[in-house]
């Protein structure tokens, strides 16, 4: 499958009978769903979408024209990464990505909520730097500090436990992109290992998790996309190699 992003006027590929995710290769929200699909060993097809020149048919699956969207039956879709991922975890429970403890599930949602300001700061720093305020830099580091404190408190390899769970796959796509900020002229967003030793170790461990490794992109690659988008010509198709395999069977839990 090609990583080419389809755009206005392009035909929708024929339905292949599997789950199908509509995504954008550099979108952290779309990556969340890709990682969950991988973690659950599900067979799926991927259709990448140019978000600047959206194909007409994407609105059939995502009324807002956003990604990700999931075609769960031919012609039927749901959208929004959180909605999709909770659906997948309930629909395909063989590889459970959430705790059975209702309190821990609630705590995981709080972890995600407390991280939201850091995500917002990333988008401003990367794509609207002239609007960046000192408070957002503070919010960014406060989010990282809170996340590191949670890792220390839980004392487990991943936030979920011995293997990554939904909370890890929800946060990691942004952590992956945070490392690109110093490369686009934002050194104040660097993740210093002296300050964030535990968090940096966690990030490095997540990079090689089975669900993450084949989809992970380097900071340099993310920086190149950010720069292309800021120049007004987002290079959606900069990855011209074949797409990663959409079927990833594994025998063991991560």
Give the CA-based shape: globular
Oligomer: single chain
The percent range for helix content is 40-55%
* Structure summary, number of beta strands: 4
Kindly state the mean pLDDT as a whole number? Answer: 94
Radius of gyration: 18 Å
Organism: Mythimna separata (Oriental armyworm)
Family: Belongs to the GST superfamily. Omega family.
Domain GST C-terminal: 101-234
GO biological process, one term: glutathione metabolic process
Features of the shown structure:
disordered C terminus, four-stranded mixed beta sheet, 4 strands, alpha+beta, globular, 254 residues, Glutathione S-transferase Yfyf (Class Pi), Chain A, domain 2
How would you summarize what this structure contains?
The chain has helices at residues 28-39, 81-91, 102-114, 116-127, 134-154, 166-178, 197-207, 219-230, and strands at 19-23, 44-48, 69-73, 76-79.
Topology, element by element:
Layout: E1 19-23, H1 28-39, E2 44-48, E3 69-73, E4 76-79, H2 81-91, H3 102-114, H4 116-127, H5 134-154, H6 166-178, H7 197-207, H8 219-230
Helix pairs in contact: 1-2, 1-6, 4-5
Family: Belongs to the GST superfamily. Omega family.
GO molecular function: glutathione dehydrogenase (ascorbate) activity; glutathione transferase activity
Domain GST C-terminal: 101-234
């Amino acid at each position: 499958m090609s990583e080419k992003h389809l755009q206005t006027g392009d035909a929708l590929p024929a339905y292949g009978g599997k789950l199908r995710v509509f995504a954008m290769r550099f979108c952290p929200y779309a990556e969340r769903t890709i990682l969950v699909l991988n973690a659950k060993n599900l067979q799926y097809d991927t259709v990448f979408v140019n978000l600047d020149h959206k194909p007409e048919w994407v609105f059939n699956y995502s009324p807002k024209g956003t990604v990700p969207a999931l075609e769960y039956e031919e012609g039927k879709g749901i959208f929004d990464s959180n909605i999709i991922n909770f659906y997948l975890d309930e629909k395909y429970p063989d590889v459970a990505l959430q705790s059975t403890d209702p309190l821990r599930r609630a705590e995981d949602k709080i972890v995600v909520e407390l991280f939201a300001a850091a995500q917002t700061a990333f988008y401003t720093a990367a794509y609207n730097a002239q609007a960046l305020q000192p408070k957002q830099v503070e919010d960014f580091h406060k989010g990282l500090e809170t996340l590191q404190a949670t890792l220390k408190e839980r004392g487990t390899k991943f936030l979920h436990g011995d293997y990554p769970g939904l909370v890890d796959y929800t946060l990691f796509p942004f952590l992956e992109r945070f490392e690109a900020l110093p490369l686009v002229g934002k050194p104040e967003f660097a993740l210093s290992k002296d300050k964030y030793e535990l968090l940096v170790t966690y990030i490095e461990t997540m990079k090689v998790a089975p669900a993450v490794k084949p989809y992970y992109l380097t900071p340099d690659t993310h920086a190149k996309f950010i720069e292309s988008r800021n120049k007004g010509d987002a290079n959606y198709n900069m990855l011209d190699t074949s797409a990663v395999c959409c079927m990833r069977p594994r025998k063991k839990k991560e």
